[in-house]
Amino acid sequence: DDKDMSLTSSIANLETPHFYFELGQLISSSGHPQFASEMLQLVDKLVPLTQLVLSEWTLDERQASPLAITLLGRAGLHKDLPLPEPPRRHDPLLQQMLEMDDSLLIQMNAQARSGPSRTTAHQCHLVSRKANRRCVIALYRAPDQGGFSLSELSFLKSLSQTLLPLLERHAQLHRQQALKNLRSWSAKPADALQQTPLQREFDERLSLGDITLSAREKEVCLGLLTGGTVPEMAQRLSVKNSSVETYLKRAAAKLGVSGRHGLAKWMVGA
Known about the structure:
Layout: H1 2-13, H2 17-28, H3 35-44, E1 51-60, E2 65-76, H4 93-99, E3 104-108, H5 110-113, E4 122-130, E5 133-141, H6 150-186, H7 197-208, H8 215-225, H9 230-237, H10 241-255, H11 259-267
Antiparallel strand pairs: 1-2, 1-5, 3-4, 4-5
């Protein structure tokens, strides 16, 4: 079949200097915003794609639920297509990720298995496992491009041995940067919290996890994340210390963490 013929020539192209040049660009973009689009351009030349979403999941394997989902980048080649949504806590992929034994999983979307659809994009997920973390590369293809062939899947599997470790590195750099940001914000007065990147990141993490906190719970979390103490928070909010601790406990229960340390770890996706 034509697709497989062109794939055979694509695999031959892997040994070309141009492929290594593009791979070098992808490696050097680790930890930077353009990482997702560099990866999309590299893969698309070998296996046609329209979009790509990168994420890291931290799983509570005993509770069979995600503790945190970090979006690590999204990219699309077609401007007219809306980018896929970031992953959510109830993603059908979750069960597969919890059960995986190997360090690599390739999961096709349910739609592709139950017959093609004119409106649903074809998807393929490449997932790596390290302890309770999962790095996920979600690849999307427009309905008219057809599903992923077996030879394309086996090719993606071999390519993923290069791509997934790079994504793990990108995730690690992302975590380190978030921690550094936390430390630098903690030196600033909490009154400036209104528009900080910390607040935006905090809100984004809440929405990714489908978690809703009350205004007070959020205020206490952000205060503690920026280095405030319980007595300081109580004074600022004109409430008792015990009230601040109650707000923190409620927020921590919703986030599935315990105490300030757990809150900071949740915030950086650790």
